[in-house]
Write a structure and sequence with these properties.
The chain is mainly β. Helix content is 8%, strand content 58%.
């Protein structure tokens, strides 16, 4: 994260203003997100067999996603984005979910920009609590949960444009809704902080 901030600062100091503003002219933007869990994912609320997942840097739970956006007004962008989250497979309690849905953003700024958006859609989640130590091969026994539902995820991006490229940081709060069996799915809700990389596509 520190290296990313340093790189953004270096680019801001070295690129000419006209080059930095070119990405604003693109009608389409494609990119990726990669973020780490902050706070706690309270999986014990689903079943006492599951442990809560804490923020643990690269070893902890994380998310990634791909997005494609199109500008429909000067500051308004709409598109579609995927959302995949998983945790360390060697931990006693593991989880993952897969999701996708539409996203809408309001973006302001030229060289430096800020975006406020909302991502929503459907998702599939699962969690497993392993019994005993992790094995190097083969299956293990334990408690398992799987569910389907919806998510709503407000997000904020702060970044920098250089040429047609964009680089920045984001905060995303994933709120999960769905099946009420075994405590429901809301315990998969969590906050992530990470890096956003994108490129403007030629019209």
């Amino acid at each position: 994260m520190v290296k990313t901030l340093a790189l953004i600062g270096l680019l801001a100091a070295t690129l000419p203003p006209h080059a930095a503003a070119q990405g604003r002219d693109s009608k389409y933007v494609a990119g990726i997100r990669s973020g780490l869990l902050v706070g706690t994912m309270n999986l014990s609320g689903i079943d006492p067999a599951f442990a809560d997942l804490e923020a643990d840097g690269p070893k902890g739970a994380h998310i990634s996603g791909y997005f494609l956006m199109t500008r429909v007004r000067q500051h308004l962008w709409v598109g579609i984005e995927t959302l995949v989250s998983n945790s360390d497979k060697t931990a006693p309690t593991t989880m993952n979910y897969q999701a996708a849905g539409p996203v809408i953003e309001l973006t302001y700024g030229e060289r430096w920009f800020i975006s406020v958006g909302m991502h929503a859609g459907g998702l599939i989640v699962n969690a497993m609590a392993r019994q005993g130590a992790a094995t190097s091969e083969g299956a293990t026994s334990g408690s398992f949960y799987k569910g389907e539902g919806l998510f709503v995820a407000p997000q904020v991006d702060i970044g920098f444009r250089f040429g047609r490229s964009e680089m920045g940081l984001f905060v995303k709060q994933v709120n999960v809704f769905g099946e009420a069996d075994r405590g429901g799915m809301s315990e998969f809700g969590s906050r992530f902080i990470g890096v956003r990389l994108a490129v403007g596509l030629k019209d």
